[in-house]
């Protein structure tokens, strides 16, 4: 008999019985808006706070890094030598915009960090492979031109929700020192069986080459965070990615955020002592 039995309060991964679920049930596994009762109020408050933060910091907004309509960066610089968090927004690759998340630069700016927020094209106008390439182009641009705009220190690449998948895919980029993946989706195969695929139209190749759980492990530090009140599919994706990396002895913590849901987890960026601000700081402290 084992000395103890793990009491895991997280519901089991619903994808283990995927074949038994009908289309609406599969969709509910990923529907964060429906899974958080006050999601609309949280999003409205976030957008209002972000509009105010952008208005108060207008000096380096809407800087193009490529030729598409949404391929621009908002920069909140703290000086060319300051560390920088690059934040990739979420929205299942088909909604939201970088401007909606500006308020989450506040805590890092107060802690002396720069923040860069890239926008990217959305499905169905762009395929997921094209979106991934755009994030790479934004990092290329920052490496070449960031210092001209007061952003030149070591980069922690962060992403939330769909943005966490985009960030995880670019952990190996030469401009990136470490990564912070928040509330992400790291295996795309089940997504193809849900309403989310109406616009994405994922191909076999995209699932194989753009799912972090199906790719070789990058040895740079990656902290993987999730809220304790996330949907079970997202909790298990976070745990699975951390387990995969741990099996390859890749550095990085698994960071459950107590009491946080898919939206409120980002509030840990609002203060200089927020849990996610400290997680970013710890990542650079651990880079050798």
Automatic annotation (TrEMBL):
Pfam families, A to Z: Abhydrolase_3 (PF07859)
Start and end residues of each Alpha/beta hydrolase fold-3 domain: 85-193
Gene Ontology molecular function terms on file: hydrolase activity
Highest taxon of the lineage: Bacteria
Keywords carried by this UniProt record: Hydrolase
Family annotation (InterPro entries): AB_hydrolase_3, AB_hydrolase_fold, GDXG_lipolytic_enzyme
Gene3D superfamilies reported for this sequence: alpha/beta hydrolase
Entry keyword Hydrolase: yes
Annotated PANTHER family: AB HYDROLASE SUPERFAMILY PROTEIN C4A8.06C (PTHR48081), KYNURENINE FORMAMIDASE (PTHR48081:SF33)
Protein name as it appears in the record: N-octanoylanthranilate hydrolase AqdA1
Organism: Methylobacterium hispanicum
